[in-house]
Amino acid sequence: RSVRVCVRVCACILMVVPVSVFSWHRDGNPLPITDDTFGNMESIQTVLTQEEKDSFHPVPSRLKKGEASFHHPLTVHGSYSNRSPFARRACVVNYIADGVKSDTNDVLLSGTDPIAKGAPVKGRFFPIVFDPKWAQATS
Which helix (H) or strand (E) holds 18? Predict the structure, then answer.
């Protein structure tokens, strides 16, 4: 019940592994982040099964400045290391459906208050960005 939006501020190549969204997770949870610098796409190989390694074929999504990629949050995606002298900039926005409940008592987003396990995820940093009732009100 969520979608990830990656908006590129500069031109770069976002790599996605299309088959990963179907089964590359662990008990419904995303694979762990294996490179804190996000510059080594191959580091994910350390946590993949042999079957997953055999189907690891990243596909380039050539985003121009200002373009966005919409994909499921369990989709393995990223970029290879930046070998240019220019900074690579991007903005990632995660959308979740209204009514999604927290699955932890820990902080969901650095700098925010924790949301109790089982409580709806909502508040200043988790706003409703679209409510179908808004569209009905204008028609």
Answer: none
